[in-house]
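Our working data are protein records whose layout never changes between entries. The record below serves as our worked example for the rest of this section:
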Amino acid sequence: MSLLLTAFTTPANTLVIADTAAPPGSLPTPAVFTTPSPPLIDGNNEYIWSPNNESGQIVTFQTDFPIGGLPITVAVGLAAFYSFAANETANVTASLQVLNAAGIIVTDTPLFTGSNGGNPDNITNASGDALIQTGLLTGETARIRVTAIVTAPITLPYEPANTGRYLGEIIVRDIVGI
């Protein structure tokens, strides 16, 4: 199995698409880095959060991980492994998407789901595999889209509000090219 991708959630690849603390009309917006904290995932402690901060806040993140190096017009099996952590409850879902040259989703294959159970000290793993059966035509691209719904701790009436945090790492391997 060859390595196709390893990447972390960052403000460059992650949007906040829903946020209970966001003012109307302010979404989507890029995530922002928070204060580094444990637990570390592969030595990384660069957690992200919404630019807004509120006790008990619920934020939905959408992260796109482009997959390069796939053969064109060949079916490829992929295995994806996702490690994630948050300082309160985090639920993730992911799908493998193929987009045409115009950026329109051509196929959307469910890949995995996972939950950390609300433990701020846990690193949780989710995984899945899929087959890009039609292959990639000229101009088409593939990505894994991870959607995470994360709840910040409830810290009221204490100040300041405890900022939520979320970090994910994806590793994608090519199982076999047909």
